[in-house]
Amino acid sequence: MQTLSAIEELFRVPSPAPANQALAVDGPTLWMGSLETKRLYGVDKRQGRVFEEFPAPGRPIGMCVVGDELRVVSSENGKEDNRFIRRYIPGHGFKEKDKVPCPDDSGSFVAYDGDLLYLSQRFNKRILAVDEKGSVIRVVAELPLEITGMTIFGGCFYLATSAGADSGDYRITKVDARKSTPEIADLATVPFEARSLCYDGERFWTNQRWEHQFVAFRLPE
Prior knowledge:
Elements (H helix, E strand, L loop, with lengths): L7 E7 L5 E7 L2 E6 L4 E6 L5 E6 L3 E8 L2 E8 L5 E8 L3 E2 L5 E2 L7 E4 L4 E5 L4 E5 L5 E7 L3 E8 L2 E7 L7 E7 L6 E8 L3 E6 L4 E5 L4 E6 L3
């Protein structure tokens, strides 16, 4: 059995709102979506200073940077929990006409490789490539664990994964889907319930939701 080391925490930044869930990074900025306030926040990632705040159309679940914009997975209609991919333009807000339903009404996190948008489905344990209408282009990979965060770096997917909400088992998993059969490898354990994952070119970021903090970390060598 593989023995994994834990992630190496570098520092933490206070979240400006509780239940910090969706997270994306763009240069010096962290973009965060709160499940409790149902708002998006633009945050200086070193100081925690909020420079932009905007109401979301639902509960923001996952988010990624697409050029000068954001794509946000939104849970809407209360208990119906309908899932949509929304377009957010910093300084302007959400664009209602660009509301795209998630395939099978299921989606958690998004990542962008400069060409295609990818959507993860937590409980289906898979990554999908989707087009601008939300239609599935292909199933990229299927995993043994639930996906609780996703980003792309160096041509590979890096995921926060979990054996289940009550398992206490959270990991960072790498998926190389450039071959016909994706290569899946667990890289590290995470000592808390990681939600969302992004990479700023130097370090990874995730949420420590229950302590209302952003966590910057690197992988063990």
